[in-house]
Structure prediction request, 102 residues.
Amino acid sequence: MSFGKHFSSLVVLAALASTAFALPQESAKQDMKDAGHDTKQAAKDAGHGTKQAAKHTGRAVKTGSQKTGHAVKKTSKSATHKVAHKTSQGAQKVEDKTSPNN
Prediction:
């Protein structure tokens, strides 16, 4: 019976020893998995942030371009109108000076 107790103690001791050696390896393996997962999540978050920033920048450029386009159109119309009016005035002056009544 002494051998049985001694043998079972050795089995328990061996199980404890293998568990003790297995834990650090499993812990290191899990730490690597966790680090990989965290890196993946960080990359996804960075990509999402980049995508959102690009969207906002694109919208701002579009809005700015539209505002600029409207301003250019308005200024061009106004300038064209003024030029046409001044041309008409100049033509009227020339006509008045060259009319046979003067």
Observations:
- The chain has a mean pLDDT of 83.
